[in-house]
């Protein structure tokens, strides 16, 4: 019998199962924190292979700082992975995200990671978002000089990366670091979604995005998918601010020092909407 791997603290996502969850069509919304006296809630949108669980640390962090936040399982992702279809595209994700925003029924700060930046930008073209935060974003297809990525075989579902790639590209971990808990959470992805991102098929009209925004670049990101200068170009294209988090890997929300990225987001939030009341005890969070 094999011995179970140790779970690294940053790869323990079990907290997601303790938050209030509401099904909205093919999506699931998780909520943390209480309605703030001022400032809109954050809505965290995961990227390819990921679900709302990848933001479980962020949900707790922002709740402790007095902010309400949500994370969403888009169709076919996270708890909704059984609904993944080969024909699912990024526009479908954006449509479901818009429905999730309307369910919240308040202006939200949309936070999109990696591929999740694309449905965020499409949704922001349709709703009155309060702000946009992009984390290691995929580029819009009409970004001048954007770099394509070789496509995956069309049709069917693409299994998530193996442990070695998860360690190096997603989490920035050393070889042989235990990642079973992370790999078990990843879901297969629609090849159509991946190829729409890789082949730059999703165009965004910056004129239709009327809110402030910021792009946080992961300084330790994969140069094949995020070549030097691309994140800054995305920010410039959209009229957003750009900041480099030099020591963060691609999935900064569950990196070893994820608190550094969360703090950067909190500081940027405070620059727009005012400072929060400061950290609360864990027991003060709104939990299930």
TrEMBL record:
Q: Which InterPro entries match?
A: AB_hydrolase_1 (IPR000073), AB_hydrolase_fold (IPR029058)
Q: Name one GO molecular function term.
A: carboxylic ester hydrolase activity
Q: Which Pfam families match?
A: Abhydrolase_6
What Gene3D superfamilies does this protein map onto? alpha/beta hydrolase
Q: Which residues form the AB hydrolase-1 domain?
A: 42-261
Superkingdom classification of source: Bacteria
| GO BP, one annotated term | phosphatidic acid biosynthetic process
Keyword entries, A-Z: Hydrolase
Q: Which PANTHER family match?
A: ALPHA_BETA-HYDROLASES SUPERFAMILY PROTEIN, RE40534P-RELATED
The protein's name is Alpha/beta hydrolase
Q: What is the lineage of its organism?
A: Bacteria, Pseudomonadati, Pseudomonadota, Betaproteobacteria, Burkholderiales
């Amino acid at each position: 019998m094999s011995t179970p791997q140790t779970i690294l603290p940053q790869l323990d996502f079990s907290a997601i199962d303790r938050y209030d969850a509401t099904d909205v069509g093919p999506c699931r919304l998780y909520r943390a924190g209480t309605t703030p006296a001022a400032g809109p809630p954050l809505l965290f949108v995961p990227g390819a292979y990921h679900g709302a669980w990848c933001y479980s640390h962020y949900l707790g962090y922002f709740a402790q700082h007095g902010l309400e936040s949500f994370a969403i399982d888009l169709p076919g992702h996270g708890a909704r992975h059984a609904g993944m279809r080969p024909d699912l595209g990024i526009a479908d994700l954006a449509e479901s995200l818009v429905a999730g925003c309307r369910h919240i029924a308040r202006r939200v700060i949309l936070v999109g990671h990696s591929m999740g930046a694309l449905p965020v930008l499409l949704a922001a073209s349709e709703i009155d978002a309060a702000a946009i935060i992009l984390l290691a974003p995929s580029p819009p297809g009409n970004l001048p000089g954007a770099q394509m990525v070789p496509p995956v075989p069309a049709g069917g579902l693409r299994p998530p990366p193996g442990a070695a790639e998860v360690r190096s590209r997603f989490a920035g971990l050393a070889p042989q670091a235990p990642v079973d808990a992370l790999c078990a959470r990843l879901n297969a992805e629609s090849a159509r979604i991946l190829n729409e991102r890789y082949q730059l098929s999703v165009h965004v009209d910056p004129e239709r995005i009327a809110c402030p925004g910021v792009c946080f670049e992961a300084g330790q990101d994969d140069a094949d998918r995020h070549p030097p200068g691309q994140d800054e170009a995305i920010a410039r294209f959209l009229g957003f601010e750009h900041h480099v988090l030099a020591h963060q890997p691609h999935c900064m929300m569950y990196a070893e020092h994820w608190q550094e990225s969360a703090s950067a987001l909190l500081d940027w939030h405070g620059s727009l909407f005012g400072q929060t009341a400061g950290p609360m005890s864990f027991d003060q969070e709104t939990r299930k």
